[in-house]
Amino acid sequence: MLQALSRIGRRRVLQVCTAVTVVLGLLLWWLLPLGQPAPTGTLTFSTGVRSGVYQRYGERLKGDLARDLPEVSIRLQTSEGSQQNIARVATGKADFTIATTDALATYLRSGKPGADRLRGCVRLYDDYIQLVVPRDSEVRRVSDLRGKRVGVGQRGSGVRLVADRLLTAAGLDPERDVTPVSAGIDTMPKQLEDDRLDAFFWSGGLPTSAVQELSDRFAIRLVPLEAALVKELQAAGGSARYYRSAMMPADAYHNAQQDQSVPTVAVSNVLVTTDRSDPALTEAFTRTVIDSRDRIGREVHAAQLVDLRTAIYTDPLPLHEGASRYYRSVKP
Q1: Whole-angstrom distance, CA of residue 170 vs CA of residue 145
Q2: Cβ(205)–Cβ(47) under 8 Å?
Q3: Contacts of 97 (CB under 8 A, 6+ apart)
Q4: 287: which DSSP letter?
Q5: Is pLDDT above 80 for 317?
Q6: Distances in Å between the alpha carbon of 170 and those of 153, 173, 174, 202, 264?
Q7: What is the model's pTM?
Q8: Using CA of residue 248, residue 249, residue 253, residue 255, what is the dihedral sign?
Q9: Phi, psi (5° rounding) for residue 168?
């Protein structure tokens, strides 16, 4: 009798242990992120000039990426802007970048190396074209720049692309009717302040710190880019269709705008990678961009404008597989 009870007791203990093991296994399966391994390796993110919005945004995003992707080493690489950014990613010299849609469309139409491999992850925020002059300048419209020394951005920038197009739309030859100065937002404000420039173009999110700081120490004005000029710009067709009329809010640059909104041109930005990028990494990168919007937006205002409802629209680029996974995962 005792032996039978002992056997029943051992069997009951084994049954209980088995049940506990199953429960613990199910609990671990539920709690731990099993499945695909976490992304690892090194990632290069091409940004922009040091005082521009691309670079400031990239610096803050890097911290969030490091938290969300602890096994990935993230390297920021400054650049001249959109055109150089696109070329770097398309040719494998960088993994992710930000670029304007007009610059992307131009690269695609030109059939440059790696164009067919480019993919979009997130439609970010809009760039506003800013034509900055001293407050007492005689320049009231783009056509008044004839004979002036004009900062037109660096050759690898999106600024250079749109500045040349705006000058042409205003009836000016960008090489002959003005004295074009190749410079970035890191040097153009000081050149204007020192009377080495009569005006400069900038394309960036609002407010751009370099323009804000200039307006705080030097009297400047923003030249209106009227709707008629935008129509002339769009008439060129092709990648120019990505430009649209917009208004710079009156409070973008308080000192420069004197509480007046300013008509201008806007073009959207896209987070860019290629089909070489690992889907799991791209999904995680996309998630971090969306989740970090409010935190980064407190320091870089343009980041507040990232919107999940429109982020999926990365035209002219097809959506990357990893980004598509993310949007499916958060679809209501």
Answers
A1: 10
A2: no
A3: 45, 46, 47, 79, 85, 86, 88, 89, 271, 272, 273
A4: H
A5: yes
A6: 18, 9, 10, 17, 14
A7: 0.86
A8: positive
A9: -65, -45
| pLDDT computed for residue 34 by the predictor | 46
Separation CA 258–CA 11 (nearest Å): 86
Pull the structure tokens for residue 270.
Answer: 């896209």
| Of 288, 298, 297, 244, the residue nearest 268 (C-alpha) | 244
Structure tokens, 215: 């307006």
CA 291 to CA 289: how far, in whole Å? Answer: 6
Instruction: Output the CA–CA distances (angstroms, integers) from residue 184 to 50, 55, 178, 189, 299, in the order listed.
Output: 9, 13, 17, 9, 22
CA–centroid distance for 146 within its chain: 32
- What is the total residue count of the chain? 332
Q: Residue 15: pLDDT above 80?
A: no
Torsion angle of the four alpha carbons 123, 202, 46, 78, in this order, in degrees rounded to the nearest 10: -160
Q: Kindly calculate the radius of gyration of the chain based on its CA atoms and give it in whole angstroms.
A: 26
What is the per-residue pLDDT for 19?
A: 52
